[in-house]
Amino acid sequence: xxxxxxxxxxxxxxxxxxxxxxxxxxxxxxxxxxxxxxxxxxxxxxxxxxxxxxxxxxxxxxxxxxxxxxxxxxxxxxxxxxxxxxxxxxxxxxxxxxxxxxxxxxxxxxxxxxxxxxxxxxxxxxxxxxxxxxxxxxxxxxxxxxxxxxxxxxxxxxxxxxxxxxxxxxxxxxxxxxxxxxxxxxxxxxxxxxxxxxxxxxxxxxxxxxxxxxxxxxxxxxxxxxxxxxxxxxxxxxxxxxxxxxxxxxxxxxxxxxxxxxxxxxxxxxxxxxxxxxxxxxxxxxxxxxxxxxxxxxxxxxxxxxxxxxxxxxxxxxxxxxxxxxxxxxxxxxxxxxxxxxxxxxxxx
Length: 349
Hints:
Blueprint: H1 14-21, H2 27-38, E1 47-49, E2 68-72, E3 77-83, H3 90-104, E4 118-124, E5 137-141, E6 159-165, H4 166-174, H5 183-193, H6 198-204, H7 208-221, H8 224-278, H9 280-317, H10 326-333, H11 337-348
Parallel strand pairs: 3-4, 4-6
Antiparallel strand pairs: 1-2, 2-3, 5-6
Helix pairs in contact: 1-8, 4-5, 8-9, 9-10, 10-11
C-alpha cells in the first residue's frame, strides 16, 4: 500500500482544482465530473482543455481567475470554476462569463451559425441557497416564455448557468438523502470537499474513476512545486480577505460616526422647527422623533455610500488590489463601474 507522505492539497482551492482536473492525468476525472453535473443524453467521452496552463506569475494575485475552459466533442464550450466564497455579484458574474465566452467564438467575417452553446459552472463551497436546504444545484438557461408551440428552438439552452454547492451536497450524500441520479455527483463533490475522508475512501472502492482522481491528487500533493503554488494561492486569498475585512470595518466605523452626527443634527433641526410651529410640547416630541428617524435613515444611506467609496479608495491604494479591473472593484465594493472609473481617474491626476 502506498504510504501517504504529505497532507492532501484541498481541491476546493481553485489552483489545486485546476492543477488536478486540467492536467492530462486528470482529464478522465474532468469528463466524469462533467457527466455527473450535466447528465447529458449521450455521455461525454472526450473533452479538450483550452487553458491547461497555470499562470505562476499571477498565482499570488487573488484577482486572477483560475477557471477551466473546455470544449466538448460537439463544440459546446464549458467554463468551470471553483469558488470558495459566494459573492453578491456571483450571478451577474456568471452571466458575464457566459456572454463573453459566447461572443468570443466569432472572428471577423464569421457567420453567426458558427456560435456554439456555452455552459458556465460554479462550484461553490458556501451555502448559496439557504432557503432550500435540500437543493444543492440550481441551473438557469434561455427558455421560451410562452406556452405556445416552440419557435426559434436554436435559442433553447444556448446559454446555461449552473451553480453547485459542494458542502451541502457532501452532507446530503453522507445522509443518503440524494435522489438516485445525483448519487454519483454527490460522490464527486464529496471528494472535492473531503478527499481523505473514510466515506470517500469507501466510494473509491466502487468507483474506479474516483479512485484514480484521488491517486492523482496524492501524486500532486507530493510535488514540491504544486505545494508551493497552493501555499502562495492560499496566502493571497487570506491576504485579500484580511484587506477586505479591515477596509469594511474601518468604513463601517467612519460611516456610523458620520451618519450618527448628520442624523442627530438634522433630526434636531427639523424636530425643533416643526415643534415650534405646532407647539412646544407636542411639536418637540413629534418633530424630534420624525426628524431623528428621517435624519438617521438618510445618514445611514449616505454613510453606506461613503463606506463603499472609502473601501474603493483603500483598495486603490493597496498594491495588491489597485491593478484590479473596474468590473472587479465594482463587484467588491458595490459601486458601479462608472463610479470606480471616476475615482480611479481622479487619483491618476
